[in-house]
Backbone:
C-alpha cells in the first residue's frame, strides 16, 4: 500500500510541494511513498518517474533485506535476482559477489575442518594398540566409507628372501582370496607405486579390470588409487582403494594427507611390534637363562657332592693303598723270612739227606749182598727178608732224594732239564728271576708246550692262581707247601701226561681240580 505525497491541486506550487515531501520520505527510508500521476504535463511525468524509482528502490531494498537475513541465518545459497539498472545493478552484483565469497570461504572452512577432523581421527587409529593387523582393519573400515570407496587393501612392506615384498595385512570389501597375493617392488601397479614412492590414480578402468562385489551383485569400479606410505623416504606400506565414482578433490586431498601422516602411525606400530617381539625374545631368553642358571646350580651342587664323594673315595683309596702297602711290606718281610726258613730247611734237609744216605747206601749194599746169597748160607726166608730190606731201603733212598730235590726247588738251586723230567715245579718268587717270565719263556718253545708246570708262590692273594694260569702254568700251590698235597698233585699231573697234542694239554688244564 502506498500513500500520496500531498493533495493534487491545480497549482504547480502544490505539486512541487508534494514532490519535495515524497523525496524527503524516500530520503528518510520510507520507500512506500507515491505521487499522484493524475497531473498532466511535466509534473505528471515527474510523478511517474518518482513512483518508478521508489518502486525500484523498494524492490532492491526488499531483496537486500531478504538475502541479508537469510545469509545471517546461515543460508549461503541465496542471491539477489532482481533486475536493477545502474548503481542498483552494481549494488546487486556487489552483494551477490560478497555472498559468493562468503559461500566459498565457508565451504573451504568446512572442508578444512572436515579434513582436519577426519585426518586426526584416522591417524590416531593405532594409538595405544599393538596389533598392526587389527589397527589396519579399523583404518579401512573408517576410511573407505568416508571417501566413497567400496574396495580397499593395505599392503605392508616386509623384507623377504628375494627382497622387499608387499603382503596384504587388511582388506575392505575384498573377495575371498582376493587380497592374499604378495607383490615385489615394480610388480603390478602396487609394486610400481611402492618403488616410485608416488601416488597412482587410474581412471576409466576397462571392464573386468577389477570387480567390486556385494550381496546382490557386482560391478566395475570407475577409479583406482594407490598411495605409498612413507616414513623419511622409507617405504612402509601401500594403500589401495577403488570406487564406483571418481574421487572428489576433497577426498583426494584427504587421502594425500593421510598417506603422508600414516607413515608415523605405521612406523610407530612396527616399532612397537618389533619392541614387543624383542621383549618376548628377551623374556624367553631370560627364562632360558634362569633355567640354565638353575641347571648350573644343580649341576654345581651335584659336582660338589660328587667331588666330595670323590675326595672321600680318594681318601678311602689312599687308606686302602696304605693298608695294601703295609700288607705288601709285611708279606715281603714274611716272604723274606719264609725264604730264609726255606733256605735253612733246604740246607738242613741237604745235610740230613747226606747223613742218611751214607749209612743207607751201606745198608742197601749189605741187603743186596744178602739177597744175592752168593755163599748160599742163608735160608730162603732170610733171603726174602734181605730183599724186602733192600726194596724198602731203595724206596727210602728215593724219598730222601725227592725231598732233597724239593728243598732245592724251593731254594731255587735245582736246574731242571725238561727233556729229562716229566714235570716242572716253578717257584714264582725266586731271587733275581721272574717266575711268570720263566713260565712264558718255557711255553714259547713248541717242545715244552705240553710239559706240566706247577707254580709255587708265597703270596696268598686272591688273583694269584688266575695270574699263574694266565702265564702258562697248569696248577698253582701256595706256600707253605703241604708236602702230601704237593705229591698228590705231582702224581695226578704225571698220570695225565698221556696227551699227545696241544689240545690234550688244554683239556687236562680245563679238567684239573
Residues:
Amino acid at each position: 500500500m502506498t500513500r500520496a505525497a500531498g493533495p493534487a491541486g491545480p497549482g504547480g506550487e502544490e505539486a512541487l510541494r508534494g514532490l519535495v515531501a515524497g523525496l524527503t520520505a524516500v530520503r528518510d527510508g520510507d520507500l512506500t511513498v507515491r505521487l499522484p500521476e493524475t497531473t498532466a504535463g511535466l509534473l505528471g511525468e515527474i510523478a511517474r518517474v518518482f513512483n518508478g524509482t521508489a518502486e525500484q528502490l523498494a524492490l532492491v531494498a526488499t531483496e537486500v533485506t531478504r538475502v541479508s537475513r537469510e545469509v545471517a541465518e546461515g543460508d549461503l545459497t541465496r542471491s539477489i535476482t532482481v533486475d536493477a539498472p545502474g548503481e542498483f545493478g552494481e549494488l546487486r552484483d556487489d552483494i551477490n559477489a560478497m555472498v559468493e565469497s562468503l559461500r566459498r570461504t565457508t565451504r573451504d572452512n568446512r572442508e578444512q575442518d572436515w579434513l582436519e577432523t577426519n585426518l586426526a581421527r584416522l591417524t590416531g587409529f593405532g594409538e595405544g594398540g599393538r596389533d598392526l593387523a587389527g589397527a589396519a582393519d579399523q583404518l579401512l573400515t573408517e576410511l573407505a566409507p568416508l571417501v566413497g570407496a567400496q574396495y580397499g587393501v593395505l599392503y605392508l612392506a616386509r623384507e623377504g628372501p628375494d627382497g622387499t615384498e608387499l603382503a596384504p595385512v587388511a582388506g575392505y570389501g575384498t573377495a575371498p582370496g582376493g587380497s592374499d597375493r604378495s607383490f615385489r617392488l615394480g610388480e603390478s601397479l602396487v609394486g610400481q607405486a611402492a618403488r616410485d614412492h608416488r601416488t597412482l590414480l587410474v581412471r576409466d578402468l576397462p571392464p573386468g579390470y577389477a570387480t567390486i562385489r556385494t550381496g546382490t551383485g557386482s560391478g566395475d569400479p570407475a577409479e583406482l588409487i594407490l598411495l605409498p606410505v612413507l616414513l623419511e623416504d622409507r617405504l612402509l606400506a601401500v594403500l589401495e582403494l577403488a570406487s564406483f565414482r571418481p574421487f572428489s578433490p576433497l577426498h583426494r586431498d584427504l587421502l594425500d594427507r593421510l598417506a603422508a601422516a600414516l607413515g608415523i602411525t605405521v612406523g610407530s606400530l612396527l616399532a612397537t611390534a618389533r619392541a614387543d617381539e624383542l621383549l618376548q625374545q628377551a623374556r624367553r631368553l631370560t627364562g632360558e637363562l634362569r633355567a640354565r642358571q638353575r641347571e648350573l646350580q644343580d649341576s654345581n651342587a651335584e659336582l660338589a657332592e660328587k667331588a666330595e664323594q670323590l675326595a672321600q673315595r680318594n681318601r678311602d683309596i689312599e687308606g686302602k693303598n696304605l693298608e695294601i702297602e703295609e700288607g705288601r711290606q709285611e708279606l715281603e718281610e714274611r716272604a723274606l723270612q719264609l725264604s730264609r726258613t726255606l733256605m735253612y730247611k733246604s740246607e738242613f734237609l741237604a745235610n740230613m739227606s747226606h747223613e742218611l744216605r751214607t749209612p743207607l747206601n751201606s745198608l742197601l749194599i749189605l741187603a743186596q749182598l744178602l739177597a744175592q746169597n752168593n755163599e748160599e748160607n742163608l735160608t730162603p726166608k732170610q733171603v726174602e727178608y734181605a730183599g724186602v730190606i733192600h726194596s724198602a731201603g731203595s724206596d727210602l733212598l728215593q724219598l730222601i732224594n725227592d725231598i732233597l730235590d724239593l728243598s732245592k726247588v724251593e731254594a731255587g738251586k735245582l736246574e731242571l732239564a725238561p727233556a729229562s723230567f716229566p714235570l716242572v715245579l716253578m717257584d714264582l718268587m725266586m731271587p733275581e728271576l721272574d717266575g711268570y717270565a720263566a713260565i712264558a719263556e718255557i711255553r714259547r718253545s713248541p717242545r715244552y708246550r705240553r710239559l706240566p708246570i706247577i707254580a709255587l708262590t708265597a703270596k696268598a692273594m686272591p688273583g694269584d692262581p688266575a695270574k699263574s694260569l694266565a702265564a702258562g702254568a697248569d696248577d698253582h700251590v701256595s706256600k707253605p707247601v703241604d708236602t702230601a698235597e704237593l705229591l698228590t698233585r705231582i702224581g695226578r699231573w704225571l698220570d695225565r701226561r698221556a696227551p699227545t697234542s696241544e689240545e690234550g694239554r688244554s683239556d687236562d688244564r680245563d679238567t684239573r681240580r
User: Anything to note?
Assistant: Residues 140-247 form a domain with the Beta-Lactamase fold (CATH 3.30.450.40). Residues 1-10, 499-513 have pLDDT under 50 and may be disordered. Residues 249-372 form the longest helix (124 residues).
